[in-house]
Design brief:
By secondary structure, the protein is an alpha/beta fold. Helices cover 44% and strands 17% of the residues. The chain has helices at 13-22, 44-60, 71-76, 78-84, 96-104, 128-133, 135-141, 157-162, 166-183, 201-208, 218-231, 250-261; strands at residues 3-7, 28-32, 65-68, 91-93, 115-116, 121-126, 144-145, 148-153, 189-192, 213-215, 243-246, 268-269. Helix 10 (201-208) links the parallel strand 9 (189-192) and strand 10. The mean pLDDT is 91.
């Protein structure tokens, strides 16, 4: 496949869906580690091992480039993979980069010193593992100064979305927003730091209020990927057919994915 998209479950389908809209001729291999989802409550070592195993399988299927469309894996495993594990002719990209580019209005290749940006108060909604890693704050600090980030671990939200329980998911979103606003009453921007969360973007926006700019990742990651492939055409892998793989029960995952994207989806065993 030309490009691999990895997630612990179905959240990365929000990224796939946008990429498919923007680049309909691009073959994609989507890999859902459904047997081990969610990653958000796992240890960093566990996340690293599972992510390496899945990405290695995608390399074996002909991908040269894999997007970790999983904020937890991006936070807990990406840097370690790039430093210690990644084959020389392969690339793994995370989903934080496009988000921080948008928030700071500077390109990732801009290595000038950190500078002040317009947004001073940022709410981050993410899984417990992403929050505890502080990866978003660390990467943001390389590019911006004077930004106050208040992070809210959104326990239970991924499970509710994977199970298709929209009523529970909506209740959890409002509860987590209320908890964050007790600590940061007036955020200027909110980061939906999990690829599942765009499904609840309207609920986040309603709970936060109209004056808060809500950033989700699907469109930003898709635009960044298009730019990256234009600059690195050697990262197109072999294969001409899009495929969807899972470590879980293919029939069950297909049913949930169909509900997730509201169109027919068919997963195969990884």
């Amino acid at each position: 496949m030309a490009v691999g998209i990895f997630d612990s479950g179905l959240g990365g389908l929000t990224v796939y869906d946008q990429i498919a809209r923007d680049m309909p001729d691009l073959p994609v291999c989507y890999f859902a580690d459904s047997a081990h989802t969610p990653y958000g409550t796992r240890t960093a070592d566990d996340i690293y091992g599972l992510t390496c195993g899945a990405v290695g399988a995608m390399f074996d299927r002909g991908c040269n480039l894999v997007i970790l469309a999983c904020n937890t894996a991006s936070a807990a495993a990406l840097r370690r993979m790039q430093e210690n594990w990644l084959p020389r002719d392969k690339r793994v990209l995370g989903v934080f980069v496009p988000m921080i580019e948008a928030l700071t209005e500077r390109n990732w290749g801009d290595n000038s010193p950190p500078r002040e940006v317009d947004v001073k108060h940022v709410a981050l909604f993410a899984t417990p593992a992403t929050v505890s890693s502080r990866a978003f704050q660390r990467e943001l600090a390389f590019r911006a100064i004077g930004v106050d980030v208040e992070a809210q671990p959104c326990g239970g939200l991924v499970d509710a979305l994977e199970d298709g329980d929209e009523m529970l998911a909506e209740a959890l979103v409002r509860s987590h927003v209320d908890a964050l606003k007790r600590r940061m009453p007036h955020p200027q921007a909110a980061i939906l730091g999990c690829t599942h969360y765009p499904l609840m973007q309207q609920t986040f926006q309603e709970a936060l209020g109209p004056d808060v700019t809500v950033y989700s990742q699907a469109n930003l990651v898709s635009a960044s990927l298009s730019d990256y492939l234009n600059r690195h055409p050697d990262m197109y892998g072999e294969g001409q057919e899009t495929q969807f793989l899972t470590t879980g029960d293919p029939r069950q995952v297909s049913d949930r994915a169909t509900q997730f994207l509201r169109r027919q989806m068919r997963f195969e065993a990884a």
